[in-house]
Amino acid sequence: MKPGSNSTNSIPPPPLPRVTAQFDRTARVYEPQQQLSIRYQIEGFDEATVQAVERSVLWYTEGKGEEDLGVHFFERTETPEGLAAAMPEGAFVVRLPVSPLSYEGVIVKVRWCIRVRIFFVSGRDFVSEHVFDLGHIPPALGIRDPLDLSEPSP
Amino acid sequence: MKLPRFFGKKRGHRRTGSQIWGSVGEGLFYAALVAAGLIFGGLLVSGAVAYAPADAEGLVLDNRQAWWLWLLTLLIPGALLAFGGSGLARVIRAWGKSEERRAASVEMPALLDKMGHAADEAPGHPGVPTCEDLVNSPGTILRYRLPIESPESWTLLGFGLFALLWNAVVLVLAVGAGLDLLSGRTDWLLLAILVPFVAVGVGGIFLFGRALLLATAVGPTQVEISDHPLIPGGSYDVLLGQGGTGTFRELQLLLETEELATFRQGTDTRTERIVVRRERVKEWHDVQLAPGARFETHVTLAIPADGMHSFASDHNAVKWRLVVRGRPERRPAFTRIFPLVVFPAQASAAASAAGRSSPRQESP
């Protein structure tokens, strides 16, 4: 879980909520085009202070390069009925795409995750991220002997 | 709202600085550009201000300008308006939205959904580059002829451009010095500058000529493949043709996976490349090439079943390629690269079938 937030409220900020997520596969490894079902629970917050909740399934890159991000599923809830269904407990089901597969490269990594982002009336927001794997690509190890064209090979 | 801080810290994925203040600053910058463009453009259009070369001391009232001169003078305010306006629209559009919502709003509108993918993304395969550029050239024996990406070509182009531009400057200086000499004047400073400039120019021409000789001395390399896009675990027929004369001490055909990461370093944008997988498909020793006949052979290319598919996003990529590496006798070694596109194993069979009928067709 990654508790990142934009703190825009005057001091003192209220305590951060806690989000627990339960995937329908305990190993959190999914095949392409497989259905992902997730159930989450948000604790430690006052429901009256919530303005909106966003739920998304996305991939992002990590590593040496700038971060790229692709959203596969996105849902924003602002209405009272929607908020009542999305918190403090919620669930959603998504059919995963064929690509990009999760990848642990040397300088490029592709990660899949679900994010639950809560917007408070004060202007602050809180995001909780839960990573899972799409596919079974083993980590890349890298090449220790770069091509040397100046010397003949043995 | 907290007051803005000039210095922030990076803590893992996030920064301590306020995103709101950052957006405010960005918005003010673009708004200032728009305002400058409006004021400057308004003054020019209304005729209150015009540039008069004859009177460089100040601004003059002059409406008798040619129409193309008006267009030319409106270029700067136009550019300010376009740059500032687009930046301001981007800031307003992103205001108060999460990065997921911004990304989703780009990808989800129905209009864009009809296109379904970015220009360089394979249909129905997010994050996978298209192979349209790799299947538009039919092979002579096998189905597709792969395009070449030769590092030596870029070196040759670089040397050529440098030699051309540098010697153009040298020519201008030399003409000036020559005219001075003809008129009986000797500008020693110009002559002193000209000598090292000429030396560098001659060196540039020599390097270009050497690179050209090396590039053309080794004959053309041709690679054809029986199918595209490729699938992890699949096997493909590959035809390698190497032209030229003389003896190649060694000729190798390699399959490589390369990672590319583009990042900002200060004000520069850099791209780091690293080969993370290399498999020797086949190698040949002491290959004799006769004039008019090329070395030609068929090999079977097996794509590892556990390999990552080709991946491309704005700043990151995983690329597959065939590399032909040769060591001709009495000539420098050369490397020629032939890009490949590997689709994910799942649904790749359907994509391959679709690709055979039409490279643009979306897989079911």
- Portion in helices of chain B: 25-40%
Distance between the termini of chain A: 51 Å
Given helix and strand content, the structural type of chain A is mainly beta
Question: What fraction of residues of chain B sit in β-strands?
Answer: 25-35%
Mean pLDDT figure of chain B: 82
| Secondary structure category of chain B | alpha+beta
Number of helices of chain A: 1
Rounded to the nearest angstrom, the distance between the terminal CA atoms of chain B is 51 Å
Roughly how much helix do the residues of chain A carry, as a percent range? Answer: under 10%
Largest interface comes to:
A-B, 58 and 59 residues
Question: What would the keywords be for this entry?
Answer:
heterodimer, A: 154 residues, mainly beta, Immunoglobulin-like, seven-stranded mixed beta sheet, 1 helix, disordered N terminus, B: 364 residues, alpha+beta, four-stranded antiparallel beta sheet, 8 helices, 11 strands, 39% helix, disordered C terminus
What can you tell me about this protein's structure?
The complex is a heterodimer of chains A (154) and B (364). With 154 residues, chain A is mostly beta strands. Chain A is built from one helix and ten strands. In chain A, the strands form two sheets. In chain A, strands 1, 3, 5, 6, 8, 9 and 10 form a seven-stranded mixed beta sheet that branches. In chain A, a hairpin with a 5-residue loop joins β5 and β6. Chain A is globular, with a radius of gyration of 20 Å. The termini of chain A are far apart. Chain B has 364 residues and is of the alpha+beta class. Chain B has three domains: 106 residues, no CATH class; 152 residues, Immunoglobulin-like (Sandwich), CATH 2.60.40; 65 residues. In chain B, the strands form three sheets. In chain B, strands 6, 7, 9, 10 and 11 form a five-stranded antiparallel beta sheet that branches. A four-stranded antiparallel beta sheet of chain B has the order 3-4-5-8, with no helix packed on it. In chain B, strands 1-2 form a two-stranded antiparallel ribbon. The interface between A and B is large, with 58 and 59 residues.
